[in-house]
Automatic annotation (TrEMBL), chains A, B:
SUPFAM superfamilies: Acyl-CoA dehydrogenase C-terminal domain-like, Acyl-CoA dehydrogenase NM domain-like. Belongs to the acyl-CoA dehydrogenase family. Signal peptide: none annotated. Pfam families: Acyl-CoA_dh_1, Acyl-CoA_dh_C, Acyl-CoA_dh_M, Acyl-CoA_dh_N. Its cofactor is FAD. It comes from the Bacteria. Residues 36-156 form the Acyl-CoA dehydrogenase/oxidase N-terminal domain. Its EC number is 1.3.8.-. It comes from Ottowia pentelensis. This is Acyl-CoA dehydrogenase.
């Protein structure tokens, strides 16, 4: 069940795909060169391999427990979280002025992946805290920042995102939780929130809930939603903790996976807190973030950070499943090889289909990691480049990539973890083996923080149709440049170029089709939205691996780390030959298939 | 959680794809026309909907329990099994002379699907009994038949298949369980068998284990394996039960899915049975089936029946997941439609991507069901046609289809049940919803009774390379005939023809590549084996749906059941536009991708 962080692969991407040398030239990142990346990643690897990873399997068997209004997390979580906070890991990518380390996302994203590979359930708590920090940084008043930010950045307190209600899942227009303005400028919050990750736990002394609610008299729909901070414990003027606020965990869910992560139902304002009885009456005390009715906008800041993070979770769990499958394939002896190369039975990694499965897991994981790395570099440039045009270009590129990182990266994790079970054969189906956990854990990833369809709506509507496919076509042009370099290269490079070319053509057809339909035939455009997302995600991963192949060949020519570079070249070619061609099928589904997807009327099902 | 058997779809396939009118002309099937099929399927639907299906969800929550050497099955299983046996369902496809009903597989397969949709865990017990019956019918002595067959066919006793040992999974050459010949012609069996489905339970008074073991002095490898009957309770001369035999269940597995189905570890011959203490000594008493050292051959009889059955399990669980997803999509209200067709939020079935997901589940399920129906018809002709050439042709066609029914049908069930979770959004991840159970249950199907890779080895080696691709090319010729009919038809038919054409071309390339490599470059051929299986399975399902479209258009022209026929046409076209194009990607993986699949040496992973 052990985990070895793929530090070499992270550093390769950081150096050659994200170009850390360029990032280190940006104001604020002067100390964030390759050496910093090496030092941070090595320390992060050590912590996650030794402290966090060993808790994963047992925590799945003995998940968080709910009793009364409290939640006890799995064995070892509290202590590991203490070490996580003490190590300064929560503050890695947050501003130095709030106590963070201000590192580029390019480096921090690798650390997020390691934490999630080590333990997806554990890692969710810091992931949600990151979202709360982002929202406060962007829209919080000075007072809110002063009260909450430093303690969130240090990991002393944790954060949550409270969006979902029983009737309001993907559709936040349906949020009913209400906020009543009080004379002192605070609000009282009433309502029920569900699916609140780490909505209650015992790892930190306070929990800072960021809650979507409707102020009385606000407009209907998403334009009447406001964002509030609701602390579990009230915070006194000196920063110490006061009374228990009127928000309680009434139950946690029994889930398919990520069982150790408590998913809470939170009840706001039913008057059970002691402080309600001193004449104050019921209601959880909340503090408005930013302005009234702009809650959705702020929430999207958290969501976008979280969506990238969830994409990384997909890569993380695929990596862990891959490592486990490789270990088993090298150990399990079964059957003679088909080429008769050994007299008796061999380890199953000698069987061609086992190799194909392992290569598929590897290529999907490395491809999505490469995309995530390129996206992180764009994010860093979008936030730190002195030239506003460069910032804007990078921001547009990053925003195009986020639904791909999230949507494609999580869908592929379901495939990769399923292959991980398959490599184990019958043993994979036995829970004691551990492969099944990754398969169960991964299944939430294409759902939460916006389902794949929600990501695809974003990609079709805001990221493609809105600008007439300009950014999408810009990506295709970039791909074409890489294609040309590959086409003039080695046999491996040429093979990748050929499949990249076909995939880019398929992408072009899809963009044209989506763009043409988005306004005139929205149903047709959106019937192709998920295939379009999968096509784009697949193409970008294949493109980044094409770039990786070129870099690896250069390194190889310089005599650097031959084994690693050769493996990277093989993986890039495998991706091109086995995964990229899926874009051909997706193209047909998008271009030809909208009619048949919608032809059956709802009541004919 | 309710289940409604898709009786109309079964009957459509039975009438138009399997051509029950032709089957009813065969000797022995004179009474097995469409009316018989209707009557049997309606009664079977009633039984499974009302008796078996309601037990499924609770049984997953409270699975079979092991205590001492006994297993208590989930609440209600014993009574449901009693009704199953009393209803004569076990004997449906078995010979009348053994107490069965002698119905064609064409009809019986639909009943098997219903039982498995109702309750996969429950259905495994009869599925294994079917295998035991087949083995005894083919290779059992008259005495063994007289002792066991009638009681297995009536369901009074159940059967098991004992192949796997800790070191012998896919590789049966590694079987170590030993059989010592006794003076009275019986054998004493010693060893440990694992993963024995219903190896112990409380639903029937006796269990008939069919056990692979090695007689002392037998050749090494698969040529030294023999097959034995080992009853849980000894059977006296008058057919009544005698002493407990020396075989005991020592534990059952904690599994990802099919939790209510007990998966036993069986210990043979450790001398704990009372009868061993009367001077007889340890050893489970076993009776040789057929001849010594021909066990694998007989076991394949059971395996082939079981493989088809497991393919049907895939269709069954996909159907159940589809029905649940449709029900949720019609009920759950969330978000305005993208075309603005309603002012407020609509049920999610109005959202294009939800429709696309439901159509994908539907098309995969109906496509694989159509393949299974065509395969069953071939089986019936192979066993009952008076003309030996027709029998032989049908047998070859059936044998080509079995790995597709099993491999493609089960892989698609993982995809379909995963989509079923996705349609439910966050609720899909909560175990109380029930969608997750299908996803967990389905995951064993591509593994047991031979993994997808084992099916693919069979398809490449025995079914394609051995005859130089003759049968495979014969299938392609049949597809081409359907293509031509479609190309001259309606707009829907033409659309299907176009994608079927491309898929058939891809299949042709794959067959040529596999055939060319199988002997000279076996690693290359087998690296493409699973993609080849998926390509062939996809093509055949698309072809059968093409045939279904033509039949549906004819029925429609005759004014018959317009809603059903229109839905069938839409589903066939959806399959052609969304699923068939996957064959293009698989072709590239097979033709271009063998090198990159194998380029990374085992120790470089």
């Amino acid at each position: 069940m052990s985990y070895t962080a793929p530090v070499k692969d992270f550093l390769f991407n950081i150096e050659h795909l994200a170009r850390i040398d360029e990032i280190a030239k940006l104001p604020g990142f002067e100390d964030a060169g390759l050496e910093t990346a090496q030092a941070v990643l090595q320390e992060c690897a050590r912590f996650n391999e030794q402290v966090v990873a060993p808790l994963n399997f047992e925590a799945d068997k003995a998940p968080s427990r709910h009793s009364g209004t409290s939640v006890t997390t799995s064995q070892g979580f509290k202590e590991a979280y203490r070490q996580y906070a003490e190590g300064g890991w929560q503050g890695l990518q947050h501003p130095a002025e709030e106590g963070g380390q201000g590192l580029p996302k390019t480096i921090a994203a690798a650390c997020v992946e390691m934490l999630n590979s080590a333990n997806l359930s554990f890692a969710l708590c810091p992931l949600l805290t990151d979202g709360a920090i982002e929202a406060l940084l962007t829209a919080g008043s000075d007072q809110l920042k002063a009260t909450y930010l430093e303690k969130l950045v240090s990991g002393q307190w944790t954060g949550t995102m409270n969006l979902t209600e029983p009737q309001a899942g993907s559709d936040l227009a349906a949020v009913r939780t209400r906020a009543e303005p009080q004379a002192d400028g605070t609000y009282k919050i009433f309502g029920t929130k569900i699916f609140i990750t780490y909505g209650e736990h015992d790892m930190a002394e306070n929990i800072v809930h960021l809650v979507l609610a409707r102020v009385q008299g606000a407009p209907e729909g998403v334009k009447g939603i406001s964002l509030f901070v609701v602390p579990k414990f009230m915070v006194k003027g000196d920063g110490s903790l006061g009374e228990r606020n009127d928000v309680y965990c009434v139950s946690i869910e029994h889930k398919l996976g990520i069982k150790a992560s408590p998913t809470a139902v939170l009840q706001y304002g039913d008057g059970t807190a002691a402080m309600c009885k001193n004449g104050a009456g019921p209601g959880a005390v909340g503090y408005l973030v930013g302005e009234e009715n702009r809650g959705l906008e702020y929430m999207f800041i958290m969501m976008n950070a979280a969506r990238y993070g969830v994409g990384v979770q997909g890569i993380a769990v695929a990596e862990r499943a891959y490592q486990k499958a490789v270990a088993y394939a090298k150990e399990r002896v079964q059957s003679r090889p088909v080429d008769g190369s050994t007299k008796g039975a061999a380890t199953i990694i000698h069987h061609p289909d086992v190799r194909r499965m392992l290569m598929t897991m590897r290529a999907l994981t490395e491809g999505c990691r490469a995309t995530a790395s390129a996206a992180a570099a764009a994010y860093d440039a979008a936030h730190h480049d002195p030239d506003p045009r460069v910032r804007q270009q990078n921001q547009a590129f990053y925003e195009f990539l986020v639904p791909l990182v999230k949507g494609y990266g999580t869908e592929m994790s379901v495939e990769a973890t399923s292959l991980g079970v398959q490599v184990h054969g019958g043993m994979g189906f036995i829970e004691e083996t551990g492969a099944a956990q990754y398969y169960r854990d991964a299944r939430i990833l294409p759902i939460y923080e916006g389902t794949t369809a929600i990501q695809a709506n974003d990609l079709v509507g805001r990221k493609t149709a809105r600008d007439g496919g300009r950014v999408a076509k810009g990506v295709a042009e970039q791909v074409e440049l890489t294609e040309k370099r590959l086409a003039g290269g080695s046999a491996d490079a040429k093979a990748v170029a050929r499949h990249l070319h076909a995939a880019r053509r398929a992408f072009g057809d899809a963009v044209d089709c989506i763009d043409a339909n988005a306004k005139a035939h929205p149903n047709a455009a959106y019937a192709g939205s998920v295939p379009y997302l999968m096509l784009a995600g697949n193409l970008v991963a294949g493109w980044q691996l094409g770039r990786a192949l070129l870099a690896a060949e250069e390194q190889l020519a310089q005599g650097k780390d031959a084994a690693f570079m050769q493996a990277k070249i093989v993986t890039a070619r495998f991706y091109a030959e086995h995964i990229l061609p899926r874009t051909l099928a997706l193209r047909d589904a998008i271009v030809d298939g909208a009619g048949s997807a919608l032809a059956l009327a709802p009541d004919a099902f």
